[in-house]
Amino acid sequence: MDKNIPKLISIVETAKFYASLCLGTIAFISVFAFLFLIPFVVDPAISSLMAQYEPEPVTCVATQHIYAEGLRNCTWSSCREGCTGQITRCHQIFVNYSKIPFRHFKPNTDIEWDISNTRLLVNAEGCGYPPTVNCSLFTQQYGYQSTGTPFPCYYSRVYSDTVIARYSWDETLRQLVLSIAIPNLLFATSIAILSYWYCPGCGRTCNKYMHHFPNE
């Protein structure tokens, strides 16, 4: 008997142990990553797709910008950095919008607004986290001295009084697919390999089907 065989078996078993440890860690992290992504990516993306925002930006103009403080005065905010805490300070921007595509807008022309004095949100959730959402830059761009200046926006076909400043159907769908597919694929692959290695029934099942194929 070759003396190198036990040593080779030992190396294989050691490699299998560390591989199993890595696969188990990947499966564990994948579950928590998916649970973390549900409220922050999956649910907002589904809500955005169900709201059916117009993919082509239309014409908006800010009519009023209100800065307020206190829970009673801040029942909503156009932009929030963080989606879980209570609002104690808020910027509320109201807009008029027309369904005329912004690329067809001509300055110094009279526009018939489809909806007047409705709320403007930074995105479908009205909140986010830096650097994606920066409320200081947002209010400078759409509020303060920018009030009255036309800009592109997106309205909801389902909720006509809902207007957002940022939207991309392709990006929203891509984030939804990736946030669902990647964690679940990693989890399923890790569990499948571990089951094949350590579940006796799985190995016997595979061997049973292999008997149906003739040997070369």
Structure write-up:
With about 220 residues, the chain is an alpha/beta fold. The protein has two domains: about 30-50 and about 170-210; about 55-165, no CATH class. It has helices at about 5-50, 135-140, 170-200, 200-210, and strands at about 60-70, 80, 90-100, 115-120, 125-130, 150-155, 165. The strands form two sheets. A five-stranded mixed barrel has the order 1-3-4-7-6. Strand 6 (about 150-155) and strand 7 (about 165) form a beta hairpin. Helix 1 (about 5-50) packs antiparallel against helix 3. One of its GO terms (molecular function) is sodium channel regulator activity. It comes from Oryctes borbonicus.
How many DSSP-defined strands?
7
Low-confidence segments, ≥5 residues, pLDDT <50? Answer: 208-214
Sheet-strand content, in percent, reads: 15-25%
Query: Radius of gyration, rounded?
Result: 27 Å
Q: In one word, what is the shape?
A: elongated
Report the biggest beta sheet as strand number plus sense, adding barrel if it closes: 5 strands, mixed, barrel
Q: What is the share of helical residues? A: 40-55%
Structural class: alpha/beta
Alpha-carbon distance between the two ends: 28 Å
Q: How many domain modules?
A: 2
Strand order of the largest sheet: 1-3-4-7-6
- Note the total helix count: 4
Order of helices and strands: HEEEEEHEEHH
Overall pLDDT confidence:
86
